[in-house]
Model the fold of this input.
Amino acid sequence: MTQTSGIQEAIDAKAGTGGTVVWPVGTHWVSVPVEVPSKVRFIGEGKEATIIRAVAGVDMPCVVRNRPESRFAGTMDAEISCMTVRGNEYTQDVMLLEGFSRGVVADVRLRQTCPYSTGLRVTTWLDGSIYRTSNRNKFSGLWMFDAWESMVLTKHSGDPATHGCNFNHIESSYLAGYGYIGLNIDYGEGNVLTAVTTSTSMDGTLGYRIADAITTIVGCSADSTMGPRRAAPLLVDQWGFPTGALENGNTGFYFTEKAGGSVLITPSADGCFKRIDFQ
Done:
């Protein structure tokens, strides 16, 4: 039986015209992803108070996602804020945003238990040959924990072009990618990071991976002093699948050869094996 805790019904009542749905204090269980359409603000009572949680044992690839409106427009001017979202043992992306533009994700905590999972994945949306990028969003006050990759900005795996996520601003957030990467930006340009902290306590992890993306990073840190060192993990490719390779040590800020034009100002990488690595 599908379980929504009444959340989707309340959101759908605002679809089309737009509006605000404030969800109350408590733990609210869902067995299908909660979908947020354009112009709808889905707001909790605080990330310590409102918890949206996937029902255990249900195959849910994500818990909260946006709802693209049509082939010619993704989701625009939506907001998700002030709540905790938690996956189950099957969840690959706790929050999945595809073709999400001019939106806000603020004061959100994401937690995960599934191996090789992602806290927040932001991608292009592909429908046939039409794709829509995820542009000009603001992400602030994020707190992500227990994910293989905490946050990923990339393109859809079926998109043959290299268009990704552009002109997004990520600020004042803690992204703990204990398994592999704190913040992974694969494709895009004009993205700005300010006052972001990642945790790179496991050997072989990367605080920030900037690949084929022009990114400005200001006042950000990769903290490797938190928690014990553990064995080096399997490296994964850009879609999150293990490659079978191992890497020792950890790196605070990792830039590939296609990240030319990126700017790094006042970085901190306490305890990292390598503070900055340019390939």
